[in-house]
Design brief:
The protein starts with a strand and ends in a 7-residue tail after the last strand. By secondary structure, it is α/β, with parallel strands linked by helices. Helix 2 links the parallel strand 2 and strand 3. Helix 1 crosses helix 8 and helix 5 packs parallel to helix 6. The protein has one domain: NAD(P)-binding Rossmann-like Domain (Rossmann fold), CATH 3.40.50.720. The protein has a 7-stranded parallel sheet, with helices on both faces. Bound molecules: NADP nicotinamide-adenine-dinucleotide phosphate. The site of NADP nicotinamide-adenine-dinucleotide phosphate (NAP) has 29 residues, from helix 1 and helix 7.
Amino acid sequence: MQNKVVVITGASQGLGKELSLQLAKLGAKIALVARSEKLLVEVKKEINDNGGTAEYFVCDVTDVDAINLTVSKIMDTFKTVDVLVNNAGVWTADYLEEKDKNLVEKTFMVNSVGPINFYKAVSPIFEKNKKGHFVFINSIWGLNLPETKDGLVYTATKWAMTGFANALKYKYGGTDIKLTSIFPGPFVSNIDKNAGDDFGDDESKEMKTSEVADAVIYALNATGKMQIGDIELKYTNWNS
Ligand SMILES: NC(=O)c1ccc[n+]([C@@H]2O[C@H](COP(=O)([O-])OP(=O)(O)OC[C@H]3O[C@@H](n4cnc5c(N)ncnc54)[C@H](OP(=O)(O)O)[C@@H]3O)[C@@H](O)[C@H]2O)c1
């Protein structure tokens, strides 16, 4: 990963933050993207304090103009992009949607439309360079039929990402532009609380963000023409 420019959306907390810290330790230059400037400043500082390179870019991934401006600022700063990790995501549930009539649309905008627009902004760079790596942080609910009564819309947003990433396999087949989709089961983060929910889950059944980040880095480290495509992750004691 030495000197590779990695763009990570949702880098202010949770998996995106952990992945940013780990990749920076491996020598990657990190473009940290999220809405919360306060948290992004802290992540950048932690990376810099450990001798790594990072810059932050405040961007709401539901805003296509903001995405295009952000990618152009990233190019000004780092001159290229080697990896895009589409990680930003939000949780929703039926009872939350009852309280906010726009929540279905908002969740699709963050989890499905945002990653597509980020892909569109970065793909000309990869196509010009004739190489690059798109990573989609999906969910195990975007791979298997979920056992859920209240995560229907969240599941649909992730299946939209599955469909898009699968379609891209055909577009980039035979090129050195790589695609990886990560399908994690539950891992410990504040995704529920950030949505105004509380899963109250048994954390002994949930992965750590560091373990999920390890799997992403495993895929990024594949050399030459080797492409690690779809990765499902879960603890053995989580049954769904
Ligand atoms: N946690 C799990 O159990 C689990 C399981 C499977 C898959 N996933 C997926 O893993 C990814 C990361 O989740 P996490 O658990 O780490 O969640 P998290 O801790 O809540 O972090 C979500 C990140 O997304 C960013 N984000 C949210 N809305 C955004 C927007 N409109 N524009 C830009 N950034 C936005 C947040 O930053 P700001 O608020 O600062 O913008 C934050 O950095 C998500 O795609 C999630 O669906 C999570």
